[in-house]
Amino acid sequence: MSQSVYHEIGGREAVEAVVEAFYDRVLSDDRLAPYFEGMDMTELRAHQVQFISSVAGGPVDYSGADMREAHAHLDIGDAEFDAVAEHLESALRVNGVGDENVTAILDEVESLRAPVVGR
C-alpha cells in the first residue's frame, strides 16, 4: 500500500478522528465492550492511531505488541473480529474516507484475522 492512502485520508488528524469514532462505536457495542474493561483507553487509542497509520502507509511504524500476543488472552472469535471490522468501516466512512481507501485499510486489517483470533 502506498503512503498516499494515509495522506489521501487526511493524515494524522484524520486517523485520530477515525480512532475516536471507532472506539465510540466499539465501547457502545454490548458484544465488544467487555473486552475493554480495565484497559488503559488512552494507551489503546494511541496504539490504534499508530496501527491505522501504519496499515494506511503513513510515516508511522506500529510499535505495539505482536497481534497474536496482544489478543491471545481475550478469546476473540470470528464474530467479534467481524464486529470490530464493521465498526472500523463505519468510522472510516463517517470521517469521509473513500471506498477505495476503506477497502485498502480493511484488507490490511483482514490479513490479521488469523493471529487475532488465535489461529
From TrEMBL:
Signal sequence extent: none
UniProt superkingdom: Archaea
Gene3D superfamilies: Globins (1.10.490.10)
UniProt cross-references to InterPro entries, sorted A to Z: Globin-like_sf, Globin/Proto, Hemoglobin_trunc, Hemoglobin_trunc_I
Keywords: Heme, Iron, Metal-binding, Transport
GO MF term set: metal ion binding
Pfam family, one: Bac_globin
Similarity field: Belongs to the truncated hemoglobin family. Group I subfamily.
Record-given protein name: Group 1 truncated hemoglobin
Source species: Halomarina salina
